[in-house]
Amino acid sequence: MTSTTEGAESLSVEQLSETTLLRFATAGSVDDGKSTLVGRLLHDSKSVLTDQLEAVERASAGRGQDGPDLALLTDGLRAEREQGITIDVAYRYFATPRRRFILADTPGHVQYTRNMVTGASTAELTVILVDARNGVVEQTRRHAAIAALLRVPHVVLAVNKMDLAGYQEAVFASIAEEFTAYATELGVPEVTAIPISALEGDNVVEPSARMDWYGGPTVLEHLETVPVSHDLAHCHARLPVQYVIRPRSAEHPDYRGYAGQIAAGSFRVGQEVTVLPSGRTSRISGIDLLGQPVDVAWTTQSVTVLLEDDIDLSRGDLIVPSKDAPATTQDVEATVCHVADQPLTVGHRVLLKHGTRTVKAIVKDIPSRLTLDDLSLHPHPGGLAANDIGRVKIRTAEPLPVDAYADSRRTGSFILIDPHDGTTLTAGMVGESFAAPEPVEDRADDDGWDF
């Protein structure tokens, strides 16, 4: 397969290894043009393979369109192409000489807000699209709130379809001012507003001659130059244990390793560590990476750690530096985004999954629900409906070593699961809050789930 022109395909392995990686997500309401923007970005940055473009041209011709519908480059599901909407998160990988990218194109329909949470959870930048004719709508505000909760450090407001608004500066300025004020109140640290037309290609990859009043970067230029801080390497070191390796072979009769992916920070041989929630301590006697011993391992590497002491340790335990161990607790207070169709109510019995550990839990209280229009807190709503954002208090059956989400996006997050069918109910961020709700007393629970 060949690229339409020289682009990411022409980069050497050495060049790719020297470029930084940016994970970013797109979000916006239905028909705001997310998929068209992504398609235009891929096409104009020379990141589309020839056979992919030919397939899109055939599909577009079959639908009676004169030119290729670039949205089809990302709307890969048959249902998406038939309905003209994005349903699932579409991940795309591409590169330019300046940077590598992992892109998550998320759905805009309110029914699929949960997918936006998934796509943005690991993103360092989120592009939120707004139709220039409609301005900031409820779903725009919801996506901004989710980006703020997930602590996405950079937000781009792409005011799309400027061609249908006559490329008027006043239209763009009004939308940018309203959104920036709203996002700032949410606590979004940085907003960059860019006027674009994804359909015509204005300010996506190349500057627009039809909006000469705009002097800022194009979308691609901003993506290539925005600072990327891989702060996980500097976070509190955390290793959730996924599997205990005991080959029991004649060659390795005493081998006992604890395998997992390092969630944050780094570990080194000789380091004193604590296993949570038991609190037992030991020292790292060895680290295996890809079958080879190493002295140091860091964030995102999948490793096997060996300890000097033979202690009771299993899947779900957390290995941490003894000098930097989080407190364990059975009472978790967090801000959550409820993603299931069934409501989350006080007294709801759930499973809480934190890292590799899953425990029984009860929703003890829902102190408040966020009102997206004015960012006010509705006190004691009693429940959260699909796509609601609110505060919850949860009691777990077993102690959990949780970090504040502000300190670690990986070990400060969790999901709530329906114990009956395994449905994901809620995504939670420990300690996160837009405003401090009034303190409330725990409600008693009178059945076997009262911990």
Automatic annotation (TrEMBL):
The keyword NADP appears for this protein: no
Highest taxon in the source lineage: Bacteria
Signal peptide (residue range): none
Top-level EC class: transferase
EC number: 2.7.7.4
InterPro entries: CysN_GTP-bd, CysN_II, CysN_NoDQ_III, G_TR_CS, GTP-eEF1A_C, P-loop_NTPase, SO4_adenylTrfase_lsu, T_Tr_GTP-bd_dom
Family matches, as Pfam families: GTP-eEF1A_C, GTP_EFTU
Every Tr-type G domain range: 19-231
Entry keyword set: ATP-binding, GTP-binding, Nucleotide-binding, Nucleotidyltransferase, Transferase
Protein known as: sulfate adenylyltransferase
